[in-house]
Amino acid sequence: MIGEVTGIRRIRMLYLQLLYRCNFECLHCFHGKRLQHADAFTAEEAISLMTLMHDQYGAEAVTLLGGEPFVYRDLAQVVQQAKQELGLRVEICTNGYRIEPRLTEIAPHLDLLRVSLEGIGSTNDHTRKAGSYQSALSALDLARQLGVCTGATMTVTSRNIGEVLPLARTLEHFDVGQLKLHCLRPVGNAAAHPELLVTDTTAYARLREELQAAKLTVEVIVDEDLSEDGAPEICTPAGGPVEIQRIEADPRGALTMSCKAVGKDSHAFWYEKTADHIVHRPSATDELTLAVPDVVYGRA
User: Which of 41, 107, 190, 225 could link 28 by a cystine bridge, Cβ 3.0 to 4.6 Å?
Assistant: First the structure.
């Protein structure tokens, strides 16, 4: 259905939000009040969607998210099926809070553990949860011991923009391969915290200069909205792209192609769990009608 409507024939990665439930209530979380909802994929539904994306759209990888994926009861089953049955590259994006036993269980089938951090020490803990900084570092240390590659994500805010470089330096000590920097978007919980927005965009230029001069061993990937002039306008071929990098499925089955549309209920496509197929539900506010551009990432 996606190909028939858009011309897209290949989707390289599925971002699969397994459930809304989370053990954190982060100030900037795009899910907002939806974290209180019980929607979730069953293991069978998750595996069916991964299979559909692999067979029909050539998906090579899956990133498992939530909510918090490590509170998902059937995480080990989903990870094992994705790796052993479908041959997908398996990544997990987690808050890293007290995940050691389950991480040890799934490590043989996991290609990348990506931990979310929002600064150093108390800066992170104020945004996320008390004790979450040290717990996340412990998870990264265990992953290193288990031979699992690691990465980190950080949403840049007015409170932590000065700690991007110190965090990158810290991550180097844990052999973390990549730090991915996201731009804060005022949706979900972030809509209630406008003080987190970076209003002086020249701060982004200074951040980039610092990162370029630092000669880091950790690779830093930057959302191009984190620049003084914002992201460049991206032109696509007539008729749209044949291939896209990702599509995100939320626990209800709503599918989103642009990161800038996530959290805004602008879904043009839905995965119907019981029927195991994708349907097109156009609206005046969906991401196709509004031509929502995707996020552009580049190296710092």
Answer: 190
* Sheet containing 277-280, strands listed edge to edge, beginning at the edge strand earlier in sequence: 277-280, 269-272, 254-256, 243-249, 10-17, 61-65, 89-94, 112-116, 149-156, 178-183, 219-223, 297-299
- Name the strand (E) or helix (H) holding 48: helix 43-57
167 pLDDT more than 90:
yes
Q: Which two tokens stand for residue 70?
A: 């490590």
Q: Where are the alpha helices (DSSP H) in 98-221?
A: 100-106, 122-127, 132-146, 164-172, 202-214
Here the CATH number for the domain that contains residue 96 is 3.20.20.70
Tens digits of residue pLDDT in 36-48: 899 999 999 999 9
Instruction: Give me the helix-helix angle, 202-214 and 164-172, nearest 10°.
Output: 30
Q: Which amino acid is at 151?
A: G
Tokens 């498992």, residue? Answer: 64
Type of residue found at 185: R
Per-residue model confidence (pLDDT) at position 181 = 97
Comparing CA positions, the residue from 251, 247, 245 lying closest to residue 268 is: 247
Q: Domain residues for 288?
A: 2-299
Long-range contacts at 224-228 (CB < 8 A, ≥ 24 apart): 224/295, 224/296, 224/297, 224/298, 225/183, 225/295, 225/296, 226/156, 226/181, 226/183, 227/201, 228/201, 228/202, 228/204
**Residue 19 bridge partners (DSSP):** 40
> What angle is formed at CA 299 by the lines to CA 297 and CA 300, rounded to 5 degrees?
115
As for how many domains the chain has, the answer is 1
Asked whether the beta carbons of 205 and 227 are under 8 A apart, the reply is yes
Place of tokens 């840049």: 156
For 62-77, the pLDDT digits (tens) are: 999 999 999 999 999 9
